[in-house]
Design a protein that fits this description.
about 400 residues; mainly alpha; two-stranded antiparallel sheet; about 45% helix; disordered N terminus
Length: about 400
């Protein structure tokens, strides 16, 4: 069935028509966008930069509510997560130059519907600042664009040996592949419904990054060959970690993939999943993903109950909390997430509203960790903005 006739296609087309009608009502003369096709064009964002106009991505907002990559599990880590609290509670050193609550949410804008974000401004932000990867992912999720565009953008990060690198995870800039890069690539392939061969081609070379016990370390010393954030420090070989071994296995199982690499990796995760500390947020999300997707449901069930307890114990329920915190929406980015049952609707709704209010003047969302450069900040804000739009859409707060 053609994509434009699917539910996703109709929703995207309806959203575009609403945007067009709104623009015409405001006297905007831009031409309507085509519903689909290779000739698709995009409007020029209404942004004028000059010497007196600050770069919209030149500062970091200090508030919580910014989120990491699309499934938040692989953002940071350290050897056996020993530096988890020290690194993750680091607050950005500069405050955002624009007001935290921008013109969209000031008391004077009483006519603005604050039950949903400004979708058009978020779109303009992504197309003005985000990487090509996130621009294509946005069009895939919200404009019925073909998955192949995303795949081509992803494969630009692929090394000749089949592993992904080149700062696919943007907080480290070395070209060498890292385990987290493979996890991100697999997650993106899952999102676009890629063929099994795409997953298998990664599995074929994962042994090059794995330790003898079958697991993957968080990072390899090759990360030191380029600029990096402090939590990526790796001067010597690290032990295996469930982050990102667990999430990689979960996506492979979800897509029906079987491969020899998975056997020893699974054995490692079963050993590691019982020793996750309550402060290792990314390890918790990896353990949750691993157990929720495990084909051995009988073995996974009793351990999963303990992981649910860890999720609830480590979640930060204050949406205004500063620093690198994991909020309920970080653990449960959709109502169908494995951890969604851990939180009540009364606990989720304030965080959805706060997320909407956190949209900035430029249409994007802030991040809640210190970037290594202005360029990386733009990349990360593009990732976070797309992720938040997907969260709001999944909870019915984006029309």
């Amino acid at each position: 069935m053609p994509t434009w006739r699917s539910g996703r296609g109709f929703r995207a087309l309806a959203r575009r028509l609403r945007l067009i009608r709104g623009r015409r009502a405001e006297g905007d003369s831009r031409s309507p966008l085509s519903a689909r096709g290779p000739a698709q064009s995009y409007p020029t964002p209404k942004v004028t930069l000059n010497s007196s106009t600050p770069n919209p991505c030149s500062k970091v907002c200090r508030q919580g509510g910014g989120f990491r990559l699309s499934s938040q599990w692989h953002a940071r880590g350290s050897s056996a997560d020993q530096a988890d609290l020290k690194n993750r509670n680091t607050k950005p050193t500069k405050a955002c130059s624009s007001p935290l609550k921008c013109a969209l949410v000031t008391p004077g804008n009483k006519d603005i519907d604050m039950t949903q974000p400004n979708f058009e401004k978020a779109r303009d932000f992504i197309f003005s600042n985000a990487r090509l990867m996130e621009r294509h992912l946005f069009s895939f999720h919200f404009e019925a664009a073909p998955a192949e565009r995303v795949r081509r953008a992803l494969y630009a990060y692929r090394h000749e040996n089949g592993l992904f690198g080149f700062a696919l995870e943007p907080d480290k800039r070395a070209t060498a592949p890292q385990p987290v890069d493979q996890a991100i690539a697999i997650e993106i392939l899952d999102a676009i419904g890629a063929d099994q061969q795409d997953f298998l081609s990664i599995c074929d070379v994962l042994h090059e990054l794995s330790n003898k016990d079958g697991g993957l370390p968080f990072s390899h010393p090759t990360v030191e060959t380029g600029p990096r954030a402090s939590w990526w420090a790796c001067e010597e070989s690290q032990p295996s970690s469930i982050n990102p071994t667990g999430i990689i296995l979960s996506f492979l199982w979800k897509n029906g993939v079987t491969h020899p690499w998975m056997k020893e990796a699974e054995a490692f995760c079963w050993r590691a999943v019982n020793d996750i500390p309550a402060t290792s947020y990314h390890s918790i999300t990896n353990g949750l993903a691993f157990l929720s997707a495990s084909p051995d449901e009988k073995r996974a069930y009793p351990v999963l109950q303990g992981i649910y307890d860890l999720v609830r114990a480590s979640a930060c329920f204050d949406p205004h909390a500063e620093g690198y915190v994991f909020l309920p929406l970080t653990f449960a980015p959709s109502p169908t997430s494995p951890a969604a049952s851990v939180f009540t609707d009364d606990e989720i709704q304030p965080h959805l509203q706060f997320m909407i209010e956190q949209q900035q003047d430029d249409g994007g969302w802030p991040i809640n960790w210190p970037p290594i450069s202005d360029g990386v900040l733009c990349e990360c804000r593009g990732i976070v903005t797309l992720r938040n739009l997907n969260i709001l859409s999944s909870y019915g707060r984006l029309r």
